[in-house]
What does this fold into?
Amino acid sequence: MMIEKVFLPALLETIYMVSTSTLFSVLIGFITAFILVVTASDGLRPNKAVFGAFDLAVNVLRSFPFIILMIAIFPVTRALVGTTIGTTASVVPLTIAAAPFAARVIESALKEVDAGVIEAAKSFGATTRQILFRIMLVEALPAIAMGVILTVITLVGYSAMAGAIGGGGLGDVAIKYGYYRFQTDIMIYTVVILIVFVQLVQSFGNAIYKKLIG
It folds into this structure.
């Protein structure tokens, strides 16, 4: 009964928060990473001003502890979804917190592509778009896939913290029952569920990685 009334809804809320924020953060991360890679000093189209602005924005957002960030952007969250409490509201800070992380991971993967391959593409007259999407993205896809899995796992941890201030999900169960009501068994069950969830995500990611490199 406890599983049906407490853990199952909380797990579904966590899956909703993590999956939705992963979608948005990875999308923003891709766009940001592409801009950083293209406009870097050694990029396809160097632009110091654009690179500096995006690089600074990523660094600033990454420096915020998630709890502080979540509270600091309450006005933004309220403006976008009409409330600062609940799973949908949590998606906003989760996305903003994870997007810079995803951007750096994707940027690093793209920069690891062999420079010789890129130079060869240039010599054949390939455009910036062709090099970026047909060469760099394809070559970096396995590393990007693992980066996305890391982002998902990071968001699982963030979603648990979101529960501490009304975000819902398994974190909310751990705080409400395990901490405030001193129900140690609930806390243990929550931890076990989170561990199993992360292990499943990692296993899924490993399978995708092996398929991409195979």
Notes: The chain is about 85% helix and 0% strand. The chain has a mean pLDDT of 89. The chain has one domain: 2-213.
